Amino acid sequence: MMNRSQIIESVMRSIPAVIPHLLPETWAVFRQAGGFDGVRNTYWSIIYDSVYDYLTGDSPITTFKNAMKKGMVDAFVQAAEAGYEDAGGELPMDDDTLAWLGDAQNAELGHIDDLFSRLREEWDGIDPINEAFARADGYAATLDSIYGIAKLRGSDNVLLEFVGEDGAESCPECQDLKGKKALKQYILDNNLIPAPGNEAFTCKGYHCEHFWFNPKTGEEFRG
Length: 223
Prior knowledge:
Layout: H1 4-14, H2 24-31, H3 35-56, H4 61-86, H5 95-121, H6 128-154, E1 159-163, H7 172-177, E2 181-183, H8 184-189, E3 211-213, E4 220-221
Antiparallel strand pairs: 1-2, 1-3, 3-4
């Protein structure tokens, strides 16, 4: 049975046109889902609001860009800490993980700048609801990656196996890794997580269905 937050998401996906008309109380329920889901839902709504309000309002572009940047910085920290702890790691996160997180935040700040530059250039013809919905989904998917990588970083240095369906997109690196096993630290040291934007993979991790998992416990580590 779906909880209230999941019901709200289901309605938004079925009828995106209702989103601009949601009451603050409804948004609050959506954002207050437990654990990482609550972090993700909050970030999703911040992205949606930032893009939609920019495309439909008349305030300076920096207002919306800065709101999205702040939301990203906060969400990345919360997602990383959630993943790290869910794998059994203890906060604060180790120095290498903090450095990785800082690099990820800096890269995403650049992506947000690029997004608003494109929105400004392509203003005419953009549907505010569809654009905001697509951007919210895309940036929230990156947050999923932050959670998954932090979860891997917080886990013990166990032997993992590369598995998953080829899905919509695959590449030579994925094909070469399929069925192979490696220790967690080796995976991190060699940047072998098919996360979105990973230049070590020809597919760059976009739409990739491959992931590492622990064959003993069945635990999955998705980038």
